[in-house]
Amino acid sequence: MKSITIKGSERESVGKVATKALRNAGAVPCVLYGGNQAVHFSADERAFKTLVYTPNAHTVVIELGDKSFNAILQDIQVHPVSDKILHIDFFQIQDDKEITMEVPVKIVGNSKGVMAGGDLRMNNRKLKVKALPKNLPDFVEADITPLEMGNKLYVTKVPTPNFKIMHPDNTVICQVKISRAAMKAAQEAAKAAKAPAKGKKK
Fold first, then answer.
1. N or C: more exposed end of the chain, with fewer CB within 10 A?
2. For the chain, where are the E strands, in sequence order?
3. Distances, alpha carbon 6 to alpha carbons 18, 30, 35, 63, 132, in Å
4. Mean pLDDT of all residues in 110-124
5. Residue in 139, 136, 135 with CA at minimum distance from that of residue 173
6. pTM here?
7. What is the distance between the alpha carbons of residues 62 and 70, in angstroms, rounded to a whole number?
8. What pLDDT is attached to residue 178?
9. Residue 49 belongs to what H/E stretch?
């Protein structure tokens, strides 16, 4: 999995006044959990663009002076109106400990059902996976080639090398629904098959 580096500064004061001053200065207050104690720090809001405003999943290297931490984004708070980032929680990761995080689903292949006129519907665009940090996938690959009209692709049907999908076996990733046009064509074909041929003598 790709990693993004965030350079920040440790916070000495974590009160409301100090937090407000940080935000006014264009910085985001953050907390790193998972270690012996929580680490409070801040970083320029622009540093989070490639981490937050993307459908891709990343791990994070947090650099605070001469200290460096490997982490994943755990929670983010944004302003309900302006979408401005208000606060971010990170979780420190260890090389020998499995972690759980969401990764995007990547669709590959050409569905027989879609080529026949069906509509591909995505039920889950992201899935939670569990793995050692070195084995975290950039995405879960879902091959839709075998899907006929009306078929569903379950999480049990996708390859999971070196990681586990943390969803029930009956979780649907995507499905091929019968489109209105395909349904109408089928109905018209059925009517035509039932109707007696014109000009045919009894």
1. C
2. 3-10, 27-33, 39-44, 59-64, 67-78, 85-92, 99-108, 119-122, 126-131, 140-143, 152-154, 164-165, 172-177
3. 21, 11, 18, 6, 22
4. 91
5. 139
6. 0.77
7. 6
8. 83
9. helix 49-52
- CB-CB contact of 161 with 127 (8 Å): no
Q: Is residue 179 over pLDDT 80? A: no
Q: Are 90 and 96 in contact (CB under 8 A)?
A: no
- Cβ(6)–Cβ(70) below 8 Å: no
Question: Which helix (H) or strand (E) segment is 180 a member of?
Answer: helix 180-194
Tell me the β-bridge partners of 106. Answer: 141
Angstrom CA distances, 24 to 10, 16, 32, stand at 17, 12, 22
Give the pLDDT score at 49.
87
Q: What are phi and psi of 182, to 5 degrees?
A: -70, -40
pLDDT at 186: 60
Question: Strand 3-10 to strand 59-64: parallel, antiparallel, or no bridges (unpaired)?
Answer: parallel
Question: Hey, which residues does 61 pair with through a beta bridge?
Answer: 5, 70
Hey, what are 93's tokens?
């990761």
- In tens, the pLDDT along 44-72 reads 999 998 888 888 889 999 999 999 999 99
- Is pLDDT at 111 greater than 60 in this prediction? yes
CA distance 23 to 43: 10
